[in-house]
Design goal:
single chain; 357 residues; alpha+beta; five-stranded antiparallel sheet; elongated
Length: 357
């Protein structure tokens, strides 16, 4: 009978503890909703994008973190035995570490989103923005790796059986580096190349590159590889150490502006000055020309033809390509209609007697 009465009392203690925990969860959720509602009211007029970003990324993690915090504060009031209280405290500590690491990762995401919104790269002169976004991507990934690393180490430290392992994760970075170096030399080389690219920046997000005779824009830079979106929407994946070891062309390294050329082959009797004036007319009538550089020169005299080079500038590589096609088409039409005799010819001289017998 005494054992049964003790069991009933123990059930009563557990029920009271569960009721206290449930009340803490309800109060914590109300507190969380109140905080986010007041934050929304405070920033609605001044910076609505920040509030949207915070709500989108931090709402769910705080829905777990604040109840855990309230339950931890109410733990001394629960009628639990010493062993039960110790077990519950350990569980709360482990869950709090995991959720807090989740919050830190989401804070990094909020910061990245705000920087992307403030420094948008969808404009013509985006050199500074692309530089910052490229560095931000590497910092975000490294930050997440460090947060997860320390969170796992702190969780392991909560267990006596693996406390040594948890301490080792925090203090034996040199040994871990040696092991990783032997196990994944190529991956480690790519990681170091990624850090080098992030801060020396031979390439940035949205740079225009020519690699392996392929033309495209840098769409993504990870810790180990880059994604190049080619002109026909194919994706070229390259390891980062490739960019460190081999040469490539970067058309937007210091500026998005670029010079473009068009070569025209004509006959010797071509009126160069008339074609030069027509080139100026074509460029002036096009919004693709940035108005800075233009010219037409005879760059080569070949056996049967004359090579003319039209030189002009554009705001970026995409507009330069369109302007190159436009100039080529317009000059060809101009020569065909105004000076057809200037089109390339093949001349032959026949010597000796000729006739029919």
């Amino acid at each position: 009978m005494d054992k049964f009465r003790g069991f009933i009392e123990q059930l009563d203690d557990m029920a009271i503890s569960l009721i206290i925990a449930a009340v803490c969860i309800v109060l914590a959720l109300l507190f969380k909703y109140g905080i986010f509602y007041l934050l929304s009211l405070y920033n609605r007029r001044s910076n609505p994008e920040l509030v949207k970003s915070v709500n989108r990324h931090l709402n769910q993690p705080f829905a777990y973190f604040i109840p855990l915090l309230f339950i931890a504060m109410a733990l001394p009031a629960m009628p639990l035995s010493v062993d039960q209280a110790y077990t519950v405290r350990r569980i709360l500590e482990i869950l709090s570490i995991i959720v807090f690491a989740w919050i830190l990762i989401k804070v990094v995401a909020v910061i990245q989103e705000r920087v992307r919104q403030k420094y948008a790269i969808d404009k013509s002169d985006n050199f500074r923005e692309r530089k910052l976004i490229t560095q931000l991507q590497f910092v975000r990934r490294i930050s997440i790796i460090l947060i997860v690393f320390f969170a796992v180490s702190l969780v392991l430290l909560q267990f006596d059986a693996v406390r040594t392992l948890g301490t080792g994760l925090l203090t034996s970075a040199g040994i871990a580096g040696v092991v990783l170096g032997f196990a994944a030399q190529r991956s480690l080389a790519n990681l170091l190349a990624g850090l080098q690219i992030a801060f020396t920046q031979p390439i940035r997000i949205d740079d225009v590159l020519v690699i392996e005779n392929e033309f495209g824009r840098v769409e993504e830079i990870t810790l180990t590889y880059i994604v190049l979106r080619l002109w026909d929407n194919r994706r070229l994946i390259l390891p980062l150490n490739y960019l460190i070891e081999k040469p490539f062309q970067n058309w937007t390294r210091s500026s998005t502006e670029i010079l473009a050329t068009v070569f025209i082959y004509t006959d010797y009797n071509v009126p160069v000055e008339s074609i030069r004036q027509e080139l100026r007319t074509i460029l002036s009538g096009s919004g693709l020309w940035n108005g800075e550089v233009w010219g037409l020169q005879v760059t080569e005299v070949l056996q049967d033809t004359v090579q003319l080079r039209a030189l002009f500038s554009a705001h970026n590589s995409g507009e330069a390509w369109d302007l190159r096609c436009l100039v080529r088409e317009k000059l060809l039409y101009f020569i065909q209609t105004k000076y057809p005799e200037a089109l390339p010819k093949v001349r032959a001289t026949i010597s000796g007697e000729s006739g029919l017998k």
